[in-house]
Amino acid sequence: DTAVSQTPKYLVTQMGNDKSIKCEQNLGHDTMYWYKQDSKKFLKIMFSYNNKELIINETVPNRFSPKSPDKAHLNLHINSLELGDSAVYFCASSHSRVDTQYFGPGTRLTVL
Amino acid sequence: AQTVTQSQPEMSVQEAETVTLSCTYDTSESDYYLFWYKQPPSRQMILVIRQEAYKQQNATENRFSVNFQKAAKSFSLKISDSQLGDAAMYFCAYFQGGSEKLVFGKGTKLTVNP
C-alpha cells in the first residue's frame, strides 16, 4: 500500500552515463514533484507537474529532463552525469497544486 | 524570495522530556502554509504537522504541537514526552499558493538520549 514509490533506491554510476529514476504514486494526486537533497541535507525543488503539464522548472541544467507519461508517474532522466549530481532525489505528490506534499523514500545517486 | 531559517543545527533532549525546535520565515504574503517534516535515518520525509496561516489556533498532532506567531513570522515545533523514535532531522517548510513552491529550512538534527 505504498503511497509514493521510487525506483531504484540506490544508484551508483560513472561520470558521463545517462540514468533514470522512476516515481509512481497511488494516491490519485494530480501534482507531482522532484526535489534534490544535497550533501548538507538542503532540499530544493527541481520540477513540478500538474496533470502531466510542467508547472515549475527551477534553474536546473538541461541534462535533467522530467517526463510524466500519466498523472500517476513522473520520471527523471539525467544525461551526462557529473560528480555534482550526487545527491538524494525525492519524488513527492499532492492532491492539487496547493495541497500538502507527500514524499517518496528517495533515491541516493552516487556518481563516481 | 521567501526564506526559512532554522537557527539550531542540532538539538538534544532526554527521553520523556519536552523539546522545542525553532523556525522563522520571511514573507510579505498573508496567506500561506507552514509545515514540519521529519527525516529519520531511513531517509523518508514524513509530514509531522501543518499550519494554515489564516488559522489562529495552533495545530496539534498527538505529542507534536506548534507555536505559530504570525506577526513575528515564527513557527516553532514542540515535541512532548520525547521518544527514541523521534530522533531525526526536522525540516520547517513554507508554502505559498502564488509561487507553488515548498521552501525548506536547512534542518535541525534532533538527538534523543535514553
Computed Rg of chain B: 14 Å
Termini gap of chain B: 41 Å
Strand content of chain B: over 45%
Low-confidence stretches of chain A: none
Main pleated-sheet profile of chain A: 7 strands, mixed
Please provide the count of β strands of chain B.
12
Largest sheet of chain B, described in full? 6 strands, mixed
- The helix/strand order of chain B is EEEEEEEEEEEE
Labels describing this entry:
heterodimer; A: 112 residues; four-stranded antiparallel beta sheet; 56% strand; B: 114 residues; six-stranded mixed beta sheet; globular
Question: Could you characterize what this model shows?
Answer:
The complex is a heterodimer of chains A (112) and B (114). Chain A has 112 residues and is an all-beta fold. In chain A, 0% of the residues lie in helices and 56% in strands. Chain A has no helices and 11 strands. Chain A has strands at 4-7, 10-13, 19-25, 31-37, 43-50, 53-57, 64-70, 73-78, 87-94, 102-103, 107-111. In chain A, the strands form 2 sheets. In chain A, strands 2, 4, 5, 6, 9, 10 and 11 form a 7-stranded mixed beta sheet that branches. A 4-stranded antiparallel beta sheet of chain A has the order 1-3-8-7, with no helix packed on it. In chain A, a hairpin with a 2-residue loop joins strand 5 and strand 6 (53-57). The mean pLDDT of chain A is 93. Chain B is an all-beta fold and 114 residues long. Chain B has no helices and 12 strands. In chain B, the strands form 3 sheets. In chain B, strands 2, 5, 6, 10, 11 and 12 form a 6-stranded mixed beta sheet that branches. In chain B, strands 3-9-8-7 form a 4-stranded antiparallel beta sheet, with no helix packed on it. The mean pLDDT of chain B is 94. Classes of the chains: A mainly beta (112), B mainly beta (114). The A-B interface holds A 33, 40-45, 48, 55-56, 88, 90, 92, 97-98, 100-103, 105-106, 108 and B 33, 35, 37, 39, 42-47, 50, 89, 91, 95, 97, 100-102, 104, 106-107.
